[in-house]
Amino acid sequence: MKELPTLGFTEAIKMASVRILDFKGRSRRSEFWWWMLVVMVVGFCVSLFINNMLASTIWAICYMFCALSATARRLQDSGKSAIWVYVSYALGCVSNLFVSTSTAITELMDKMDPNQSVLEKVAMQHPDDFVIIFLLGCVFSVSCLIVFIMCLLDSKPEANKYGPSPKYVEE
Predict the structure, then answer these.
(1) pLDDT tens profile 99-109
(2) How many helices (H) and strands (E) does the chain have?
(3) 28, 167 contact by CB (below 8 A)
(4) Beta-strand (E) ranges in the chain?
(5) Domain annotation covers residue 3
């Protein structure tokens, strides 16, 4: 087996953007990490201009979706099931939607005291909502960490149940 050279920035972005709705097959680490860099930079830049909590949540869900297929293919390249990223994405959506639609948070955002954080106010005035937000955040964070670690793993040269290796070719 011969290892192909690492994908460059432009090649990786073209490949990932063409396959944005393709959840089958495998993606190399270089394709995945270059794509994630672009998604994160664009996501950060757009979020700077969004002031509304609901619009911010909708953007976050769309932004996470842009990374979903590449992450699924990356996990499959290392032989792992894409179910990990789907569960993590669902947890992120639920967390974002709960926070953006929580009446406790929206009420407190309207009456925000610049010397006190929103979470501090929620914890004091709405402890049930705070516990839910905290637990959702913890579970989502752990699921993201698991997916992140699995995305770091290298693939095997041989084909797996998700297809042939995009990194190695037979001589």
Answers:
(1) 777 766 666 66
(2) 7, 2
(3) yes
(4) 2-3, 168-169
(5) no
Whether 169 is covered by a domain: the verdict is: no
Query: What is the distance between the alpha carbons of residues 92 and 82, in angstroms, rounded to a whole number?
Result: 16
Q: Angle between the 53-77 and 103-110 helix axes, to the nearest 10 degrees?
A: 130
In a domain, 148, yes or no: yes
Residue (of 67, 68, 83) closest to 162 by Cα position = 83
Instruction: Return d(Cα 90, Cα 20) in angstroms, integer.
Output: 18
Model-level pTM greater than 0.90? no
| Structural domain span for residue 81 | 8-159
Confidence of residue 118 (pLDDT cuts 50, 70, 90): low
Q: Is residue 92 part of a domain?
A: yes
